[in-house]
Amino acid sequence: MKSDAYIFLKPWGKISRRNWQDWRWQFKNSIQSLPQLAEALDKPIHSLGKYQAVIARYHFRISPYYLSLIDVRDELDPIRRQCFPNVKEILYSLGGVIDPLKEKERMPVWGLIHRYSDRCLAMATNVCATYCRHCNRKNMWRVDPSMFSESRLKAVIEYVSRAQNIREVIVSGGDPLTMNEQLLDWFLGSLRSIPHVEVLRIGSRMPVVLPMRISRRICDILRKHRPVWFNTQFNHPREITEASTKACEMLLDAGIPVSNQSVFLKGINDNYETMRALLHGLQCISVRPYYLFQCDPVAGADHFRADVPSCLRIMRKLQDSTSGLCVPQYVLDTPGGKGKVSLLGLTDKEIIEGIYEHFFDKTM
Ligand code: SF4
C-alpha cells in the first residue's frame, strides 16, 4: 500500500505523504457519505442502502487515517466497528435512553455540565474528527453548531467565573481540537484567567483518530495554559501506532500529562488478552490508563454494552497479574447522573445476587 512518496488508500487513491500528514487534508477528506464508504469497501452502493436511515439519524465521519487502520474485508474488525454505521443504532427496542446521565438537567447554562461541586465540564463543540458509534453524547451530534458559538462560550466563562467553588474545568465536546485554533486559545485563556480555576483538562480523541492534529501549534496553545491535563480514548491495542505514539509524545514533551479513558466495548475489547495488550501498550507509550468505563445505556449504543460480571472477571485477573500502573479504575457512570461508582469495589456476593442490577439498571 505504501511507497516512499505516496500512500494508496481507497477511495482517495494516491495520497502524497505531505497531504497525509496534514490534519486539514485529513479532516476535509473524511468519509461522510455512503458512496465514499462503498468505494472504500469496494462494494456496490446499493449494498449499503440499509445504513441510510442510520446516518440520517446519527452523523457519520471517518478520517482517512482511522480508516487506514481497518481491515475493511473484516466486518468484525474492532476499529471498523467503532466507526462504521450499524443498523442496531436505530433499533430502539434494544433499549437505552437519549441522555442517560441526565446531563441536560445539570446545565446551568447551555453546554456547561456542573455535576460535582469543584469541577465542571464545558462542551465546547459537537464536532468530531471521527464519530464513534458508542459515544455517550451521540444524541448531541445533530445539535445546531451555533449552540457552540463564541457568545455561548462567553456564557460558560461567565458562569465559571461566578461559581467560586470550581477549580477544574474539563473542556470536552464533541472534540475541542476540531475548534478553530484562535477560538480554542481564547476559550482556554479566558478560563485560566479566572482566579479560582486552577486546572484545565482536555477531553479529545485526536491522538487516536487523527493524530496529525497534535501539531506544534496545538502543543504551544496547550502549553501556554498549563496546568493542562489531556485525556484521550484508546480502546484497542491496534490504535497504538507510530502516528498515535508520536502525537502523545508531542503532548508529553510540551509538559501535558496524557491519560486514557477507555470504554469496555462488546466484541471489541471485552476480553482479557485484548485489554491486557491495550493497557500494556499504553504504559509503553507513557499514557496512564486512568478510567475504564462501562458503556453508558445511551440510545443508539446499546449493542456495545458488555456485561458487568465478565468485565469484572477481566479486571480482577488484570489486577492480580500486572502492574498497578497499568490498571485503570473500572467505573460505571450511574444512570441518572448520580456520579461514578467503582465496580471493582463490588463483592462477589453482590455480583452473584445481582445487586448492581437492582441499583443501576437491569440491562447493565
Ligand atoms: S471523539 Fe469523543 S465526543 Fe466525539 S464521537 Fe468519539 S467519543 Fe464521542
The overall pLDDT average reads 91
CATH-assigned homologous superfamily of the largest domain: Aldolase class I
For the biggest sheet, the summary is: 9 strands, mixed
Number of strands: 11
Total helical elements:
15
Topology as H/E string? Answer: EEHHHHHHEEHEHEHHEHEHEHEEHH
Give the spatial strand order of the biggest sheet. Answer: 3-4-5-6-7-8-9-10-11
How many whole angstroms does the radius of gyration measure?
A: 20 Å
CATH architecture of the largest domain: Alpha-Beta Barrel
Our measurement of the CA-to-CA distance between the termini, rounded to an integer number of angstroms, reads 42 Å
Number of domains: 2
Please estimate the helix content: 25-40%
Which runs of at least 5 residues are low in confidence (pLDDT < 50)? none
Q: What proportion strand?
A: 15-25%
What hetero molecules are bound to the protein chains?
A: iron/sulfur cluster
The CATH class of the largest domain is identified as: Alpha Beta
What is the overall silhouette?
globular
Structural class, by secondary structure, is alpha/beta
